[in-house]
Fold:
Amino acid sequence: VTDVLDGVRLTRIDHVGIAVTNLDEAIERYRATFGLAVVAVETNPAQGVREAMLKISSSDVATPSSYVQLLEPLGPDTPVGKFLARRGEGIHHIGYGVEDVAAAMEILTQQGIRVLDERPRHGSLGASIAFIHPKDLNGVLTELVQAAHG
Ligand code: MC0
Structure:
């Protein structure tokens, strides 16, 4: 992250979030199709989801993994629940890696981009996250992910 004019530096694609109606069935489908390892299944009440992270392994050990994130809503009146009702299953958001999510949020806010969170929130695998409004990024709900260290 440098300054406002340069925008926010994205380091990688951290995950692709996919809205699903049945998490356990979706996990089995992705496992059987791609042989992905399930590294975590977590419930995040604040985000209204039960979710699984499936690791896409890189052959280069220096490159951090990226993930398929399967998202099942905890109820109809949650972001993923509303998305499923309106659009059905499919890609819900893209998560990009950043080094410093709080600094990134500040830069985007100064640029007039709508950051949906006032402060970083808890994401999968201990990450700090923030969402950007899909209408400000060409219809794609976008998440910034500062991975947990150690
Ligand atoms: C809604 N819209 C989307 C969208 N959801 N567009 C693209 N991708 C999505 N996922 C569009 C609608 O179609 C509508 O467009 C417009 O945005 C406003 O929709 P709305 O129904 O008025 O608004 P809401 O109440 O559904 O809110 C949408 C919004 C919300 C994106 C602001 O879902 C939100 O704050 N999401 C961030 C949190 C989140 O999604 N959490 C779940 C994943 P039209 O053209 O019809 O007006 S949690 C997660 O993933 C964590 C655990 C992690 O990664 O670690």
The first strand starts at residue 12 and ends at 19.
